[in-house]
Design goal:
This protein has 487 residues and is mainly alpha-helical. It is 40% helix and 9% strand. It contains 18 helices and 13 strands. Helix 2 packs antiparallel against helix 5 and helix 8 packs parallel to helix 14.
Amino acid sequence: MKKIIYKISLGLFLIGAAGCKKQITINPTHLATLENAFKEMKDYENGLSAVYNSMRGVGYYGRNMSALPDMSTDNLVQTTESLVNFLEITDWLYTPQNGTVAETWLACYSIINNANIIINSIDKLTTPANQKQANRIKGQCLAVRAMVHFDLLRYFADNLNRNSTTAGVPYRKLSVLEESPASIKPSRESVSSNYDNIYADLNTARTLLSDIDVSINGNGPKYKIDLIGLSAIYARVALYAKDYPAAISNATTVINALPLATRSVYPSIWRDQSNAEVAFASLFALGEFASRLAGDVYSPPPGTNRSQFEGNPSLFAQIDEVNDVRFSTSVTRGFSTTTLVRANTRLVVTKYLGKGTAIDGIVDWKAFRTGEMYLIRAEAYANTTGQELNALADLNTLRAARIQGFVPGTETGQALIDAIALERRKELFMEGHRWFDLKRTSRVIDRGTISSPTTQSQLANTRREWVWPIPQGERDANINIQQNSGY
């Protein structure tokens, strides 16, 4: 049976089959085989757009890599308005049969598969005349492949240190259209091997993106990964790997290119009225993909107005409500889009309320920002001998940019490390970091006093749930893949 690619406006859905005994004949007008799907470089441009489009599904930036890391921790409190659709995840009760776990695994490997189609075939049409165009397309796909494998690693691997020999994830370099019977059932590589491949892809991407035909994003929103976005990805990876020199170097590149927003501009970032600080964003627009950030935390449109998760009072008690612009940007007391009256103590999440003055919950996902880069560099400096003053300087710069009248801090030692961690919690609220920050540091969650529908208050560092299980469907199809301990 021929291997087939179906091209539709929202992306590439790739279907591969081998070993069929019977020919199946289908002749839709949009059908293309692998042999003729990419006949011109413009076909690869369309394929690249499909790669980015596939990142907007709920298994990736639409929810599971964006809102879920806050829903699962102490940053949010589940309310009585919750539909409890994700209680297994948010209360750490998941098993290999959990649908959200499987959805995340499949979404990530679908994105990787789409990228691999381009990475492994674009050279066929590359000539001296279009080499720079090919570099631009292939470089972005390599960056995406590295980033998405890293995100899989964050959920499904136990030890995230650079030289960890514990099980990581399969690093896929072939698409389903290229795999052999042996390669289609891979075993898990070590975390260290995963990092080797991630770094290799990022370094190759940097070389390619340094020699391209046209600007990737121009002066508009950064919906595609350029050299600045690549440095942001690299900085985050290096922080997790405890590769502090690389974290400092790459974060500095982003900081120098994209200054921190002023307090007056900062709120407009979340309304998509400013591109300040944003190194890479995923587009969400009315009539295309609607992010579940709003739908599964707060659904603002009139007639819905369901606040399922709200800001944790214990967190926002540590944020200056009057002087810190992040308080009013992140939550609004008692907010409602209908006549429903909520108590003033309820901190409704309004960070993703909508574009401009809209209240439909549809807003771009800011995957990488300068604010995070300051915190990456501060943490890397704080863990580097002789660089504590630089760590404090970065921390104070960020706090001064967000807090009116901020008096520079003087923290040292463990107090400085703790202050950086707290600032990450304030700055990156509802940006997909809290679960992973706790996992790579303390591995402890304490929600304090809880109420229904939440059933779990504490997650100790010895619990298996810090690592997601490999989906049962994957293990049923692949006898070579190892399950995580305890599942």
